[in-house]
Amino acid sequence: MDSVKRKRVLVYRIGSMGDTIIALPGFHKAVEAFPDAELILLANRPPSSKAAAAQTVLGEGYFFHQVINYPSFTRNPLVLLRLIRQLRVLKIDAMVNLTTTRIRKTIRSTKLGVLRDKLFFRAAGIKQFYGFPETTEDLVLTYDNETGKQEWEALRIARRLESLGPIDLTLDKYWDLHYTQQERVIAADVLKTLDPNRPVFAACAGTKRQPNDWEEYNWLALFKALKDDLPGWQLIMLGAEDERERAQKLLDCWNGDGVNLCGKTSPRVSGAALKHAKLFIGHDSGPMHLSAAGGTPCVAIYSARNLPGQWFPRGDFNKLIYHRVECAGCLLEECIAQQKKCILSITVDEVRKAIAEVIVEQKIDNLGFSAKTEI
């Protein structure tokens, strides 16, 4: 008797850490909808060494069984042809599309872009599709006049996947990264110098993009002030290797009472370490999304590079500081003319106030992390 062929499902998402985490409910829905299938992750290779590849965030074994990477932003026909051939060999049965819809100048041009992508995957032999934009709502960025925010990216993805079943974005299970026991042990080990009977907060003062940088002088002023606001608290600094020097300056400002993990831990070990923190402070960044996904309240300092809403983190337990200016939504990689007036108009006192509000509203206590429940 011939063995039954295991169904193969391609799950497609591009971007780095924050992009992967904001799509986490979609990855969970793919696992739920195809429990017995072989899940194949298709993702781009990050264009920057600072950016975390999707597979390093998701880990192996739960969300996917194998991964295919291709160069970011490639239009090389030979590269694309090789990718088509690679996908055809795998004989993929279905595809779950979690990618952000590229919104163009007109709905018609956006539709043509979506059609082009779908035809590419049809050429790879795939016949069953989920998550491709279909409605007008999917093809534009919805703006709420009452809140002043764009539609949240996680909500947009969930709506596109309705044919696979509902996704309740308020449920913790859809944000669970399923850290392994080994990852939890490694996280505990890198934090072993901390006093388990005193509280911990985490911070990331680095960023991939110049417009999103609140600048070192602001961070130093904040940490100097926080020593009076958070007496006895310990600090975990997170980030990439090239952010280590700034992180060390902040740790020194904190009298060295903590650990500098920049460049030392993988995204998933960093996420497991964040489970020990009662609070996260940082830029709009991958570690911020990692923290929020795990349920740790965030105070996040935003530039207005993107319009508010679409790329906000999970949860209503965060304080997001965003100053909307006339050039909001510029999408600049470097801000020279306006001298980053959006993010640099945010004051140290504003951030201190947001931290104090989160501590009160979320009823964060001064107990040590040893008192927390098992992660």
Automatic annotation (TrEMBL):
One of its GO terms (molecular function) is ADP-heptose-lipopolysaccharide heptosyltransferase activity. Signal peptide: none annotated. GO terms for biological process: lipopolysaccharide core region biosynthetic process. InterPro entries: Glyco_trans_9, LPS_LOS_Heptosyltrfase. The keyword Glycosyltransferase applies. GO terms for cellular component: cytosol. The keyword Nucleotidyltransferase does not apply. Keywords: Glycosyltransferase, Transferase. This is ADP-heptose:LPS heptosyltransferase. It comes from Mucilaginibacter yixingensis.
